[in-house]
Amino acid sequence: MTASTPHLEPVWLRRHADVMAAALDHETFSSAVSEHLNVPNGMDGAEHCRYRAVVDKFMNPERSAALEPQCRQVARELLAGVADGVSVDVVGGFGRGFAVRAQSRWLGWPAELEQPLLQWMEDNHAATRSGELDQTTAIAQRFDKIITDLVNARRMGRIGGRGVPVDPTDELAHDFVGDVPLLLSEIVSILRNWTAGDLGTISRCMGSIVNHLAQHPELQADMRRRIDDEPYVNAAIDEMLRIDNPFLSNRRIATRDVEVGGVSIRKGQRVYLDWVSANRDPAVFGDPDGFRPEENAPNNLVYGIGKHVCPGRTLATMELRSATTELLAATTLIEPAEGAENVRETHPLAGFRSLHVVLHKR
């Protein structure tokens, strides 16, 4: 693990070129930034490659595609409970509900965990905003207890005679890194990254997407016409997320003295890669609010870049496409809710905390 130098102020890299340079220089900018186990995000080099191989097989295109019918069904179930023409919070309501239910069905978690997970999401965001270490630690421990109980139950279940894994949680509970069985702590860390990260970000992604659609009815109409054109829908969603990116930043630690974009960085100094600013850099994108999916796609950093690119990007794209297309199919128009108070997240989070729109249903 690379140690940080406490007395040095963190450096924020915000320009697209600078963020790219640091994200692609894996030797100079280490991802081993936390004292806590973080598999595989907080690993470097060969260790990262070994554990990343374990994670990637769960989220490849084939497995993500097989999950899509379930995700679409989840979206339809939630939308069936939304009244026509009434103001709804698509982040706190539809977005969070979709994230929790879709993740639970993917991982094979019981339905009775949905409410505890929704409450955990709320408490976790509050603790993150507070910046209080005691609060964030307690919330993390609470989540780890949920995962540990689930994994232990699966391991005991296999002892009882079941030989074929029934879902990703079961499979991971008996998985290997190379020839060595995964430790319980490693399994918990992987599941924490899959769920704790996804539960919050999927709902905030839906806030960014639905806000853009509500502000641009012509785009809504175009996407409804092309609702079965998967590459077009994927590109449109990625561009909406570039314009209003809910993924704020990633951390690195410099392993040597280096200069990036004229900024001197010392060995051991903590570095933040500002994805939001990089994705709105006028030097690369011109008007950062301009909606140009095909033109901007090669430079879009919504899911990061390099060896540490988000391992769940294929799964997340499928989930967001499922939720968005079902929302568009169920409505004739999505428009902003007049007089509603929409709340933006504050550092260290980004995106919407709440977003109210009116759904005019078919």
Number of helices: 14
Distance between the termini: 55 Å
**Cα gyration radius (Å):** 21 Å
Strand content: 5-15%
Unreliable runs = none
Please name the CATH topology.
Answer: Cytochrome p450
CATH architectural category: Orthogonal Bundle
Number of separate domains: 1
| Global geometry | globular
Give the integer mean of the pLDDT values. Answer: 93
Strand order of the largest sheet: 1-9-6-2
What percent of the residues sit in helical stretches (DSSP H or I)?
Answer: 40-55%
Q: Encode the helix/strand succession as letters.
A: EHEHHEHHHHEEHHHEEEEHHHHEEEE
CATH class: Mainly Alpha
**Tally of extended strands?**
13
Structural class: alpha+beta
In short:
This protein is α+β, with helices and mostly antiparallel strands.
What is the topology?
Blueprint: E1 11-13, H1 16-24, E2 29-30, H2 45-56, H3 61-80, E3 87-89, H4 90-107, H5 114-130, H6 133-159, H7 168-173, E4 176-177, E5 180-181, H8 184-215, H9 217-225, H10 230-243, E6 249-254, E7 258-260, E8 263-265, E9 270-274, H11 275-278, H12 282-285, H13 293-296, H14 313-329, E10 331-336, E11 343-344, E12 352-354, E13 356-361
Parallel strand pairs: 1-9
Antiparallel strand pairs: 2-6, 3-13, 4-5, 6-9, 7-8, 10-13, 11-12
Helix pairs in contact: 3-4, 3-14, 4-5, 4-8, 5-6, 6-8, 8-10, 8-14, 10-14
How would you explain this protein's 3D organization?
The chain has 362 residues and is of the alpha+beta class. It has one domain: Cytochrome p450. It is built from 14 helices and 13 strands. The protein has helices at residues 16-24, 45-56, 61-80, 90-107, 114-130, 133-159, 168-173, 184-215, 217-225, 230-243, 275-278, 282-285, 293-296, 313-329, and strands at residues 11-13, 29-30, 87-89, 176-177, 180-181, 249-254, 258-260, 263-265, 270-274, 331-336, 343-344, 352-354, 356-361. The chain has a four-stranded mixed β-sheet. The chain has a three-stranded antiparallel β-sheet with strand order 3-13-10. A two-stranded antiparallel ribbon has the order 4-5. β7 (258-260) and β8 (263-265) form a beta hairpin. α3 packs parallel to α14 (313-329) and α5 (114-130) packs antiparallel against α6 (133-159). The protein is globular, with a radius of gyration of 21 Å. The mean pLDDT is 93.
